[in-house]
Design goal:
single chain, about 375 residues, alpha/beta, Immunoglobulin-like, Purple Acid Phosphatase, chain A, domain 2, six-stranded mixed sheet, 8 helices, about 20% helix, about 35% strand, globular, binds fe (ii) ion
């Protein structure tokens, strides 16, 4: 009897120790999102690396040229989301980086060039709701290997739900650790909160502009006031007026359509407020999403391209008199800039390209 009590006590002790051990154990730090890249500063000399972990830990990464990742960048404050901006990089150079204290692979990126050369980038958008469709577009984009991407908004169904963003970051994993992404806010982001937390954005984070060699990009925000006299309108007017004569290429990006042959039709607010500025200052192309199809029109001397085929449920489109090409399919746009010409190609996920546009430089 006494022997049994001793054995029982011993077993209870063992079980208690095991339970205490398992309950007290912290989960191992692991990557939840990313690493993903963005340029919220000079693309020639910086790169911002972002990632999210399952538990709060300090952020630390090693970076450097090939085989020499001997520079360390850190954020000692424990957190789940980190944005670390690498500075003082050389233009047009490939760098390697690795997140430390996590099981993370070595990734790489290339800084923007300083000396003129050809370059290529991608514009796509409306990836919400069907992540499996988004993944097909991402597979095609990744194969094309652009120098950067611009997403025209509506990343997920409801941007207020933090957990839902995982869909977007899982789908974009094939490119996000080695090609930087510029973002445009869409109506499905709903509020700034999560969008601004997740993406490292240039300027005032609401609307912004950036350069890539001789191309200037102006990113508008249709979810905030852009009517005549508003803060955004005044900024945009000054920006397009100042930069149109300075750059060979000027691209404007916004989420909502100016002209559209979809069921929604053209956006009257944009026609009334922004179109007169497009008409006056002639950007090479005004790109948007919001309409889940592709459409190219030319109106009043300006090219308008809707590229909303990133994965969201496709919408019907009935081409109008001003439409060069329209179709409802999963797709993205490739843009190749070569000295004084640029070519925009609409590309389906099977690689076929039913529409393209050749642009001649303004200067
Ligand atoms: Fe939208």
């Amino acid at each position: 009897m006494k022997k049994n009590i001793i054995i029982l006590t011993f077993l209870v002790g063992l079980i208690s120790l095991a339970l205490a051990g398992s309950f007290g154990k912290q989960p191992k730090p692991a990557i939840q999102k990313g690493p993903y890249l963005s340029w919220d500063d000079d693309p020639q000399t910086t790169m911002t690396v972002s990632w999210e972990t399952n538990i709060p830990i300090a952020g630390k990464l090693a970076y450097g040229p090939r085989g020499k990742m001997n520079y360390i960048l850190r954020n000692d404050q424990a957190g789940t989301l980190h944005h670390l901006r690498i500075k003082d990089l050389k233009p047009d150079t490939r760098y390697y980086y690795q997140l430390l204290n996590l099981s993370a692979p070595v990734c790489s990126f290339k800084t923007a060039p300083k000396e003129p050369r050809d370059f290529k980038f991608v514009i796509y958008g409306d990836t919400r709701t069907f992540p499996e469709q988004h993944k097909k577009v991402i597979a095609a984009v990744t194969q094309y290997n652009p120098e950067f991407l611009i997403h025209t908004g509506d990343y997920i169904q409801d941007g207020r739900i933090w957990a839902m963003w995982q869909e977007f970051f899982d789908a974009s994993r094939p490119f996000s650790s080695f090609i930087p992404l510029y973002t445009v806010i869409g109506n499905h982001e709903r509020t700034y909160d999560n969008y601004v937390k997740l993406f490292a954005l240039p300027g005032n984070e609401r609307w912004y502009a950036f350069d890539y060699l001789n191309a200037h990009f102006i990113i508008l925000n249709n979810e905030e006031d852009y009517q005549k006299g508003s803060e955004q309108y005044r900024w945009f007017e000054a920006e397009i007026k100042r930069t149109r004569p300075m750059y060979k290429w000027l691209f404007v990006l916004q989420h909502r359509q100016t002209y559209s042959s979809g069921k929604r039709g053209s956006d009257q607010d944009i026609l009334e407020n922004l179109e007169p500025l497009f008409r006056k200052y002639r950007p090479d192309v005004v790109f948007c999403g919001h309409e889940h199809f592709y459409e190219r029109q030319r109106r009043n001397g300006v090219n308008y391209i809707i590229t909303g085929g990133g994965g969201a449920p496709l919408y019907e489109v009935n081409p109008g008199d001003s439409t060069f090409h329209a179709e409802s399919s999963l797709h993205y746009c490739q843009i190749e800039v070569r000295d004084s010409t640029a070519k925009v190609r609409m590309v389906r996920v099977d690689g076929s390209s039913p529409d393209s546009l050749v642009l001649k430089a303004a200067r």
